[in-house]
Amino acid sequence: MHNKLFSCVKTAMYFSFFLFICIFFKLVFASAGTSAPKLEPKFSTRVQNVGSRFKMLCASQFGDQLRFSWSRNGRPLSLSDSTDDYQHYQIESGQFESSLTIAQVTAKDTGSNFTCTAANQLGMDTMTVLLSVNGKKIFLLSSVPIANKVWRILVRYLN
To answer: Is the pLDDT confidence value at 13 over 80?
Structure first.
């Protein structure tokens, strides 16, 4: 009788342990795919030259069923907008990442805050890049010799 009782308790203990493990794994792995997005870094600064290509990648380490959106200085960027301002940008989005590309950076892009937002049913996160643009130097030469000398001194002083 004692052996039968011990066997029954032993089986119940194993069953309880395996039931606990099963529930634990279901909770851990089920929640891993259903979390809010997390973007890094939150804020950074990029310096580009006029005419160079700028690409910003926005990737989430967590979350599923993500929706990405982009804005410039708080104003949404949309591919469906046909204004010249928006034709300047290219946006590509996948399941876990999105990118914003400017084929040729212009002086009007300087000081712009480009923000990516990733969202799903459990939350949202944002990351922002401040774009600083270095302009090209312009050299003006005059047909008047004194003006040329002044310009050369000025250019040497600025460099």
So the answer is: no
**Cβ contacts of 67 within 8 Å, gap of 6 or more:** 118, 119, 120
* pLDDT per position as a tens digit, 33-64: 578 999 988 889 999 999 999 999 999 988 88
Q: Tokens 């979390």 belong to which residue? A: 35
Among residues 150, 75, 157, which one has the least CA distance to residue 115?
Answer: 75
- pLDDT above 60: residue 78: yes
| 114 shares a domain with 67 | yes
pLDDT at 158 > cutoff 70? no
Of the candidates 81, 87, 33, the one whose C-alpha atom is nearest the C-alpha of residue 60 is: 33
CB atoms within 10 A of CB 68: 22
Q: Are residues 11 and 86 in the same domain?
A: no
Same domain, 4 and 71: no
Residues 17 and 47 in one domain: no
Whether the bond between 145 and the residue before it is cis, its omega within 30 degrees of 0, is no
* Segment 86-99 mean pLDDT: 86
Structural domain for 126, as ranges: 43-134
